[in-house]
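FYI - complex with adenosine-5'-diphosphate, inputs then prediction.
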Amino acid sequence: MSSETNENINKKKYNYLQIYEAAIRNANDIIILFSSQGNILEVNRKAVDTYGYTEAELLSKNIFELRNRERIELAIMQFEKAKSGDVEFETIHFKSDGTSFPVEVKSIGIEISNDRFVLSIIRDISNRMKSEAEIRGLASLVENTEDAIIGKTLDGIITSWNIGAENIYGYKKEEVIGKHISIIIPDEKINDFYEIIKKIKNGERVRGFESKRRKKNGQLIDVSITVSPIYDFEGNLIGASNITRDITENKKVEKELRDKYEEISALYEELIAIEEELRSNYQELEKAKEEADKANKAKSEFLANISHEIRTPMNGIIGIIDLLKVTELNNNQKEYLDMLSNSSRLLLGILNTILDISKIESGKFELILKPFNMKKTLDRITKELSIACSKKNLEVFYYIDPYINFDLIGDEIRLNQVLINIINNAIKFTEMGQIMFKVRKLNTTNNKLTLEFSVKDTGIGIKEEFKNDIFKKFIQQDMTYTKKYDGTGLGLAISKDIAKLMNGDIWFESIENKGSTFYFTAEFLVNYAENINNDNLNAGDDEIVSSKNKRILLVEDNEINIKITCEMLNRLGYEYEYVYDGKQALEKLKENTFDLILMDIQMPELNGYDTTRIIREKEIKTKEHVNIIAMTAYSMNGDRERCIEVGMDDYISKPFDMNKLKNVILRFI
Ligand code: ADP
């Protein structure tokens, strides 16, 4: 009781005015007293702090200067209303620096001694406005986002459902509020719900949980769900909010990508398999090619060997025929002998052709360049051409450019081979009419001369369909012709290679049943240093040489070859001796001197190469030099080089006739 009495006593001691004044001065709101015209009469501290004017400045201002001047009518209306009672509104006030801020105003009209005043309590609501705007923004965001945002109780009863949810699931808000969330969960996924709620109850959040949901129309969609707990103001867990994103499209794209990736992977694997197959095919091909190359090489070697084997007896046959010809024979025998001679020379020709082809195929076909006189070559050819044509009653014409420099360097034998081949063809395929042989100069540079040879006939000609094949190997026009005309079908193929080696070409023009012209061009070196020895040598054909006292040693193991060669040497007027191998030759040379040795290569005991080497070694001391000429049945390229390499002076290939033997001997003695 005594405390109550004390309070009353204390109250009486207060000066209320002082209390109100302190309250107003220190209030957290702006408090202003206006005159009935709106002039500011009193302001508190908060007013000074907020508006940025000094108190004196504020006291000289009017309510309308604090407000938006453009909306002055509203301000007047509100002020008038305040005078006659009280008013509450929200508006904008302006500070001294021109910035504005939202305010909530409560104005009360008061009457003091018949004068009307307005007392305004003004609150800066910037912060409140800001958070309200934020909340409004968030709400609209939640409402309008593409994601489904669903609120639910811990039992799964749906409490909120935004537009995103309506769009994704097809249910309107009214259809689902109050319903269980399982309405959108397919049966097989219903455990999702219990699992998630369990986590939420443990205070966990679920992020990016992927699952399936069912739309109103029954369609299943892929979703990614993030679930957060909802608490009430007192912090009690009351539910959960789901943010659900439809990832069906993503999944589709993802699946497509995966499918594509798998497809590409499969393709890639296939490619690797193909590559491997190709590689192994390639290896097989390489192997096959290697084998083919090996086989080809073996074939070439076989051909060379065969030629050796056949040439040796051929040498014997031809030699003996030549010897037989000069014995006494009756007419029958003479005729048979001629036939035998022709056949064996033809056989030798075929043998030579096959040998050429084997050289071309093994890449060993090369020219042997020597000085020669083109005039002599052409004279001989035209002579042969005339004789052959007269036998077939064909007319012959020839034209040889007189301004050709005739002293040349080239492979005369190969040139001869090509010309004889196209001339023989012309004669062979022409039954009547004429053959025309022309040689003209195409161009000359410093030391080179290109000649064009052409052979024109009036024969059977070449069919269109055959024209492309004519230079291929073993090609003849057709079977009927093949029967009628002999030949191997190799001549032109070889000629083409020779032309190429001579930096020239070979080609033809032909009309069936009218005739053909074959052209052949070749390049030669001009031999300015005229070679007198060469001329003398060639002239040797017609000379009778004094061969008395010239001694020749023949080293040869083949009995028939010995007989033939000795007979030839006898006729040529040389003295000679013979031995069967290199060992015997070395013995012989100990007591005898010879002007020349004809040395076979393949012999028992000591072969031609080794024998020559030994002879040359001995000669280093004696400072002598005996001429050694190799006789070999091998005519593969390189034989000549090998002979020269071991110290031989020249080379003659078997079979040879007397003329050939004479020429090679004359070169040395
Ligand atoms: P071969 O004359 O030995 O058969 P070639 O290679 O020299 O071989 O000629 C190939 C083929 O070209 C001949 O068989 C022939 O059918 C044809 N031929 C060549 N020259 C003539 C020509 N002047 N007239 C008609 N056909 C020709």
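The chain has four domains: 3-129, 145-246, 366-538, 551-666. Residues 421, 425-426, 429, 457, 459-462, 470, 475-477, 481, 487-493, 516 surround adenosine-5'-diphosphate (CB under 6 Å).
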